[in-house]
């Protein structure tokens, strides 16, 4: 097993449900599985991720958590609302996946489920062709 660096404390299904309610969106199954294994951080394996991922946002109460980043990005641009930030690259760009609505809430993205990257310097959102699973570590 590859050592993991700078991850937060372990999370369980209850913590993930709480995050979903705060976001008003359901986490995709692959992302839920990832967070049950690793609460953010990055693999300490000296390998460069083939898609440029440098690290993953944690599930906690910080401004740089999944929820904190979602709030900040939604406030910055309507184009970023309804997406779940889950990872970042070495340049500070943010990888997002559209969230499905939590029943009874009024948020969530209607989309094809493709991963997007928000290029912060250009304030541009780019649709990517890779599946969410391609951005998550394999173990």
Automatic annotation (TrEMBL):
**Gene3D superfamilies, per the entry:** SMI1/KNR4-like
Which parts pass through the membrane?
none
Domain Knr4/Smi1-like: where?
Answer: 10-138
InterPro entries for this protein = Knr4/Smi1-like_dom, Knr4/Smi1-like_sf
Q: Which Pfam families match?
A: SMI1_KNR4
**Could you tell me what this protein is called?**
Cell wall assembly regulator SMI1
Species the sequence originates in: Agromyces atrinae
